[in-house]
Write a structure and sequence with these properties.
The protein is α+β, with helices and mostly antiparallel strands and about 450 residues long. About 30% of the residues lie in helices and about 25% in strands. It contains 12 helices and 16 strands. Strand 1 (about 15-30) and strand 2 (about 35-40) form a beta hairpin. Helix 5 (about 245-270) packs across helix 7 (about 285-295). The longest helix is centred in the N-terminal third of the chain and has 22 residues, at about 125-150. 4-amino-1,4-dioxobutan-2-aminium adenosine-5'-monophosphate binds near residues 165, 239 and 377. 4-amino-1,4-dioxobutan-2-aminium adenosine-5'-monophosphate binds near residues 165 and 421.
């Protein structure tokens, strides 16, 4: 018989006869003449309580229905007399599918995130990780919905690439050569050095310069050796790119996008958001509403540096014009000073990549970073340099080889247009929308320095 997901059973408006439920036992309690089973199938946070009378067909298996075992329960959905639940399942037949060994590590008492990371294959069965990964799925859909409803074209950019978009040199080499691939790159599979992509931006730009508005959404890789709560070696990035668009249009889209994601979480992930609010981050609901309702602050980099210098705060890293903002500076601006998501724009050209458009002051480029409380940078973007001569000068300035960017420069040669885009780290967005404070806990299988077990 076809089975019904628990989320649909719990959303029922009237009693139902003869349903089949399949899931895993969270707990079993035996009473005189009957047993209570708490069942969960991951379709929602809540468990379904099943009542199994002694003598119910299959009930001889009851002693084996321990926490973690998988079962089939058939029965009738009736109103529950117990508080806090509308429906319960009166079993007419039960069947053990797979018993759980007594070493099953997930118990009813809460476990630490650190412990759960060591059992990444089982952690989706916990309340918290079920909620995180349902939310992740819903928001992935929301990302596509946001762009598709605005006529953006989804472009699949390559995972293996020869160009270091960000120029930071933090790339994973891809090679079929044994030994030292850097010694004879021409003998390698692609005939040149190749890497896992750090960003699909350069390729996305080529498509924007043909299809107008495009976006990518896929895995990206960075060999940054920073073991922080916000960096992963493999993470998913969303990169919209718009032709005929300037920095302001880019900042507007970034803000609109984050607001739309917060609204989607509130509307479509309500049960899980309520759970995060209760157990992870008490201020979450308020914050999401605040994000949806209030415009973000916008501040030029130069002014942000002045604010930091005048703050009287002791930072670990000193602040001065021409230096990158550190995480502590970003968080001071968004959490303490503005108390709002904040877009910082027009950064010094030295600290930003070659592709950003040089401003008329010849010192700053049209960069913009969106900073949010609890995380810091969630978006990095820019209006791109569309003037062929200036692009060539930018490449020189950053000591890059013009030939390596011939196809990128061609876009400026043949019908160039002002264009702009950004990259948003999907995991950082999820951290912001769930309150979960470590990036390892919002990605199913985290890749971080020294860690690729699962
Ligand atoms: O600021 P980034 O480096 O910008 C780019 O890659 C541009 N090419 C994007 C573009 O304009 N199309 O990275 C963009 C975002 C960051 O703001 C951050 O949210 C996320 O990607 N990110 C990371 N997320 C997790 N782990 C890491 N190691 C990350 N590095 C960047
Ligand atoms: Mg950045």
């Amino acid at each position: 018989m076809k089975h019904t997901l628990i989320k649909h059973i719990l959303a029922a408006t009237q009693p139902r006869e003869s349903v089949t439920v399949k899931g895993w036992i969270r707990t079993r309690r035996d009473s005189k003449g009957f047993s209570f089973l708490e069942l969960n199938d991951g379709s929602c946070l809540a468990n379904l309580q099943a009542i199994v009378d002694a003598g119910t067909p299959g009930s001889e298996a009851l002693p084996h229905l321990t926490t973690g075992a998988s079962v089939v329960v058939e029965g009738n959905i009736v109103p529950s007399p117990a508080p806090g639940q509308k429906w319960e399942l009166r079993a007419t037949r039960i069947e053990l599918i797979g018993p759980a060994d007594t070493t099953y590590p997930l118990q009813k008492k809460g476990h630490t995130m650190e412990f759960l990371r060591t059992i990444a294959h089982l952690r989706p069965r916990s309340n918290l990780f079920g909620a995180v990964f349902r939310t992740r799925s819903k928001l992935a859909f929301a990302v596509h919905d946001f762009f598709q409803s605005r006529d953006f074209v989804y472009v699949h950019t390559p995972i293996i690439t020869a160009s270091d978009c960000e120029g930071a040199g933090e790339m994973f080499r891809v090679t079929t050569l044994k030994g030292k691939p850097e010694e004879k790159p021409e003998a390698d599979f692609f005939g040149k050095p190749t890497f896992l992509t750090v960003s699909g931006q350069l390729e996305a730009e080529t498509f924007a310069c043909a299809l107008s508005n495009v976006y990518t959404f896929g895995p990206t890789f960075r060999a940054e050796n920073s073991n922080t709560a916000r960096h992963a070696a493999e993470f998913w990035m969303i990169e919209p790119e718009m032709a005929f668009c300037d920095l302001k249009g880019d900042m507007d889209l970034g803000e609109e996008f984050i607001k739309a994601m917060a609204r989607y979480a509130l509307e479509h992930c309500a049960e899980d958001v309520a759970f995060f609010c209760k157990f992870v981050d008490k201020g979450l609901n308020e914050r999401l509403k605040f994000v949806v309702e209030r415009p973000f602050v916008r501040v030029p980099y130069t002014e942000a540096v002045e604010i930091l210098n005048k703050s009287g705060k002791q930072f670990e890293f000193p602040v001065s014009y021409g230096q990158n903002l550190q995480s502590e500076h970003e968080r001071f601006l968004t959490e303490e000073h503005f108390k709002s998501p904040t877009t910082v724009f027009n950064y010094p050209r030295e600290i930003k990549p070659f592709y950003m458009r040089l401003n008329d002051d010849a010192k700053t480029v049209t960069a913009m970073d969106v900073l949010v409380p609890g995380i810091g940078e969630v978006i990095g973007g820019a209006q791109r340099e569309e003037r062929p001569g200036q692009l060539a000068e930018n490449l020189k300035f950053h000591k890059l080889n013009e030939q390596d960017y011939w196809w990128y420069s061609d876009l400026r040669k043949y019908g160039t247009v002002p264009h702009a885009g950004f990259g948003l780290g999907f995991e950082r967005l999820l951290m912001f929308l769930t309150g979960v404070s470590n990036i390892r806990d919002v990605i199913p299988f985290a890749r971080t320095p020294g860690n690729a077990e699962f």
